[in-house]
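Q: I have 347 residues here and want to know how they pack in 3D. Can you give me a structure?
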Amino acid sequence: MKRMIFIYNPRSGKGLIKNALFDIINIFAQGGFEVTAFPTFAPDDAYNKIISSALDYDIVSVSGGDGTLSQAVNALMQLPTKVPLGYIPSGSTNDFASSMSISKKMTEAAQDIVDGVFYEYDVGRFNSEKYFVYVAGFGMFTDISYETPQDIKNIFGHAAYIAEALKRLSQGVYRGIDITVEHDGNSETGNFLIGLVSNSASIAGMKFLVSDSVYFDDGLFEVTLVRTPSSPLELQQVLNDTIINRLNTKHFLTFKTKKVTFKSDEPIAWTLDGESGGAYALTTVENCRRAIKLVIKPDEKTDQQRLIDHIMGINEFDEKNMENRFAENVETVPDITKDSADGEVKE
């Protein structure tokens, strides 16, 4: 029987995990896992538990928001081997889940882990000391996620972010940052309102400021920088371009790269996956290609990765991805819920 540690944040989102916990564990048990459940209470609980215990298990599964997921990935990146990672989203926005087509219904997400295949996913390395899952950002609005109190996010969900953004715009206060951006032998200096280094199809619950062609395992980031408007009229033009995701105008600098450096005269405050990432005058962001091994529902992207690996002759990944579905060849355990309902969490 395979061993799983299931780490969950009971306060994430609206606390719905409490209503689904029994059903989730039963799904894992029915899938052939011996499950150890571990709730988090302090900010670094998920990170510390994975560091100390992950190598004793066949898979780590976590439930929470993007912050909990980021903790898990930061911990897994410290380990000498790739321990598979399953994810059940329960946060307010869940950008990563949206990008990876992970179900927002917790019991469905749990079943997809049981039936899932491996998918190797790129991770960002920030100043050689931290890691992020899907976005590193600076500038206007990027601090909204971690400055919005958890209780407010629990009550209003994604609307809390939108309300804070609209409040800031209505106050008419915005200031750009003078930055030199270096990548792939190119250098450009400018004043930028927002900067995003991402590997995601969704940021802050929206698809604005994200390239249409995002591949999660290509070793490249999508970088978007918004030039600071010189007038309220130009600000309106920037907002209009952003709403329709037209990123090829003079207001934006966009490119793909595996490594980018930002230099400024004063420290820039960064956010990593919606959490505070510190302030730096010199920042280097690098792509760690296919650094973690996710367990997700088979779909077009997993099939594509499997096919490419097969063509390239990457046998180790091929064997595990094509043969080791967690639902196959495992011991069946009795249904401990008997006549329970389907376990779906009503959102």
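Q: Anything worth noting?
A: Residues 2-116 form a domain with the Rossmann fold fold (CATH 3.40.50.10330). The chain has two domains: 2-116, 130-289.
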